[in-house]
Amino acid sequence: MGWIATIIVGGLAGWLAGILMDLRFGVFMNIVIGIIGAMLANAIFDAANIHVAAGWLGYLVQGFVGSCILLFIAKLVRS
């Protein structure tokens, strides 16, 4: 998937992860963390040859997982 699509899907994944995990970093910060998490998760999943689903849905799931992990780490650092 291209960089622009990764940014869009990562932003959506970060927003969803922030809502699900009930973290109050703010919408902008959740989206930024989501974009970074999506990029990292996509790279890790591709390197490990793990395919969750085809197309944008797979990238959304991978980005969501990466976003949740990074938001959790951010919560630990913030505490």
TrEMBL record:
Keywords: Cell membrane, Membrane, Transmembrane, Transmembrane helix. It is found in: Cell membrane. Pfam families: Transgly_assoc. It comes from the Bacteria. It is a multi-pass membrane protein. One of its GO terms (cellular component) is plasma membrane. The chain crosses the membrane at residues 25-45, 57-77. Belongs to the UPF0410 family. PANTHER family: UPF0410 PROTEIN YMGE. This is Transglycosylase. It comes from Paramesorhizobium deserti.
